[in-house]
Amino acid sequence: MLAHLRNNLNRHIQVLLALLVVLTAMPIGFLWHQSAVRIVHHTIENIYQHASQAVINHLDEFFTDANKVYEHQERIQSELSEVVKDRTALLHHITNVLNHHDEIDYFYFGNMEGGLLSAGHQGNQRYFLIETENGKAGQLNHFESDHFGSKGELINSTANFDVRTKQWFQNATKVTYPVWSNIYAGAFDPSLLGITLSKAQRDDNGKLLGVWGLDLTLNTVIQELSKSKLSEHGDVVLFYKNQVILASTSESHQPKGGALTKISHSTAPILNKLINEDHNKGNSLLLVEHKGQEWAGFITDYTLAKSDLVKIAFYSPMTDFAPELVTAQRVAILLTIILVIIAILLGRKAAGHIRTPIQSLTQAAEQISQGRWGSQIAITRDDDLGTLAKSFNKMQHNLELTIHKLDSQQQETKRLNALLAQQNQELEARVKERTQALSTANAKLQQMAYFDALTGIANRRYFWQQLDEKCIYHRGWLLILDIDNFKHINDAYGHLEGDNILKHFTATCLAVLPEKCLFGRIGGEEFALWLADLSRKEVEAITQTLLTALTQTPYRNDGISVVISTSIGASRCTANPQKSYAVADKLLYEAKLGGKNRAVIELDD
C-alpha cells in the first residue's frame, strides 16, 4: 500500500498539500492553545493571590478580635479587680464577652487559689459552663449551659485540677500584655485542639489577682478557611513549616487522637507534591499531576497569632477552573482536521488536471516496454506536459532505431559470452584445484614448522619465538616443567608407551591451564609455559591444580597404569626471556632436589 502511495502522483500531490496545511495549522493551533492555557493559568494565579489575601485578612480579623477583648478590659481594669472577687459578677462579665464575640469559643478566669470559671460554646446552639468547686483548685466540673451561664446537667468531671499549673497561666504572669500559647488539646475533649490568648489581672497596687484566658479552637479556624474554598473539589490548608497540618477543609486532614496530621505521600498526596514543587518559586501558580489529573495550587506565608510562621495552601483540580480549556483543545483539533480535509479536496482537484496526460505517458511507456515500439502520445497541449509529450515521441522513434541495432549486436555478444563462460569455468576449476593443493601443503608445512609432531603443541622454536614477542609488550611468568623419572618410565614400558605418556601429560595440562597461556614442548620430557601477568599466589594456585590433576589422572593402557608427576620452576618473565629461563631452570633444579612433584616459584621483589 505504501509503495502504491509513493508511485501514485495524484495521491502524492494530495498528501503533500495536506501535509502543508497540517504543518501550517498545527503550529497556529498549538500557539493558540498555549496562549489560552497561559491566560487560564494567569487568571487562576490571580484568583489564588486574591483568595490568599482574603484568607489572611479574615484570619487577621479573627485573631484581632481576641485582642480587642483585652483592649476593652484595659479600660475597665479597676472595675475588673472587684468583679473577679464575686462569682456572679465574674460569670456575668464572661458570658457578656462571649456573647459579643462569636469567634471566641471559650472565655475564662483562673484565680490565685487554682480555681477556674469558664463559659464556652460550640456554634450558636450549645453552651457550656466549666468551674472548679468552691472557686479553688480541686475537682473541675463540665456542665451544659445557656448563653447566660446557667448551670445545667453535669457532663463530666476532672479531679485534682489546678489552673496555676497550666502553661498559659504561667506565661501570662510573667508579662503585662496578652500572650498566645502553643496549640494544645482540650481538658475534656483531647481531639479538640485550640490556642489560648491569656493576660494577667492585677489590682491598682500591682498585686496579681489571676489570669484571663480566651480560646480559639481549630474548628473555628477551619470554618474561616471553608469560606475561602475556590471550587467544589478544592481545599484550603493551614500548616506549619515542618509540614504538620494545623487546620484544613479536608476531612482526611483532621487531627486524630489529639495529634495533628503530618503531611506525607499517604496522608496528603496532592499537598505533598505541591510543597515539593514550591521550593524557591515564591507566590506563584503550582501545577502537579495526581492519578492522571492536573491540579493547580498556591502556597503563601502567614504569621499565626503574631508568633508562629505558618503557610496557607490552596489547591483544586484544573477541571474545576477551566472546562473551557478542554473545549479549546477540542476546537483546535477539529479546526486542524477541517483544514486537512479542505487540503485533500483541493489537492484532488489539482491532481486531476495533471493526472490525464500523465496517464497517457504511462500507457505509452508501458506499450514500449512490451515491445510495441510504434506507440505515440496524442497530446496537443502547449504547456510543459505538451512539450514533454513531443520529447517523448521523438525519444520513442530514436529508441526504436537503436533497439533494432542492438538486437543484432546482442546476438553476437551472446555467442562470444557463451564461449568466454566455458573457458572461465575450465580455468576456475584448475585454479580451485591448485589453490586447494597449496592450502593443504601450507597447512602441513605450518604444522611441521611450529608444532610438535607428537603432542600437537608449540615446538621449541615456535615457543621461543612467541615468548620473545609476548615479553616485548606484556609482563608474565615463565614456567619450566620436567616430567619426573621419565627415563625410568621409558626403560620400563618402552618408547611407544613413553610417547603415549607424553601425549597424556600434554592433554592433562591443557585441560587445567588458562585459555590465554602459551604451552610448548622444548625438549624430550621438558615443557615450557608462559602465563600472563598474575600474582605469585595465582601462579602457585595454577601449579597446584596442575600437580593435583596429574596425580588424579594416571595414564592407563592395556593393563598399564602410570601416575605421572612433574617438577616445576617458575620465574617472572622480563624483557630478557633467556635470563628468565635461566632462573626458572634453576628453580626447577631446586624442585627436583626437593623431592620432585612440586613447584618452586620465584619470590616477589
UniProtKB/TrEMBL annotation:
It comes from the Bacteria. CDD domains: GGDEF, HAMP. GO terms for biological process: cell adhesion involved in single-species biofilm formation; negative regulation of bacterial-type flagellum-dependent cell motility; signal transduction. GO terms for molecular function: diguanylate cyclase activity. InterPro entries: Diguanylate_Cyclase, GGDEF_dom, HAMP_dom, Nucleotide_cyclase, Rev_trsase/Diguanyl_cyclase. Residues 474-604 form the GGDEF domain. Its EC number is 2.7.7.65. Keywords: Coiled coil, Membrane, Transmembrane, Transmembrane helix. It holds the Pfam family GGDEF. Gene3D superfamilies: 3.30.70.270, 6.10.340.10, PAS domain. The chain crosses the membrane at residues 12-32, 327-346. Residues 406-444 form a coiled coil. One of its GO terms (cellular component) is plasma membrane. The keyword Plastid does not apply. Residues 352-404 form the HAMP domain. This is diguanylate cyclase.
